[in-house]
User: Which sequence fits this backbone?
């Protein structure tokens, strides 16, 4: 979580950088240094959208987070700034996401050790930002064809 001494909206610089994955996925976020399990990778500010996720056009659903489900803010979706909307999918993922205590940030945390240079991934299917999901339906539900890794 963000450093309490900095306040609930404090921004935590990313421990990763964006580069081409070398696959059809295009860009991804990669660890700039070794990251320990439980370490905060990034605290992303979010831009609230006063529209429920299900009512957004499909193009936007692919880029935003369902804040109504994730942060319990009815009728709200958010666009994550920083690298928040650039993390690629994996199941299981090596990172998880959760709303910050102020609900104006998205906190990305390592779920396992991540070596320097490894891609940091999130699980798009998991509710509440969990790193593993049984159902692998996000791509079908949003009409996106998953690209090979």
Assistant:
């Amino acid at each position: 979580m963000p450093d309490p001494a900095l306040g609930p909206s404090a921004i935590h610089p990313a421990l990763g950088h964006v580069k081409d994955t070398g696959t059809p996925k295009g860009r991804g976020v990669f660890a700039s240094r070794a990251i320990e399990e439980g370490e905060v990778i990034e605290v992303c500010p979010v831009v609230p959208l006063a529209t429920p996720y299900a009512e957004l056009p499909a193009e936007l659903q692919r880029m935003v987070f369902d804040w109504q489900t994730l942060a319990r803010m009815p009728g709200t979706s958010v666009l994550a700034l920083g690298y928040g909307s650039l993390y690629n999918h994996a199941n299981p993922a090596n990172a998880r996401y959760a709303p910050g205590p102020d609900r104006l940030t998205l906190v990305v945390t390592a779920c396992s050790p991540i070596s320097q240079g490894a891609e940091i991934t999130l699980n798009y299917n998991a509710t509440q930002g969990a790193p593993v999901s049984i159902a692998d339906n996000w791509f079908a539900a949003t009409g996106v064809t998953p690209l090979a890794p």
Notes: The two ends are 30 Å apart (CA to CA). Confidence is low (pLDDT under 50) at residues 1-7.
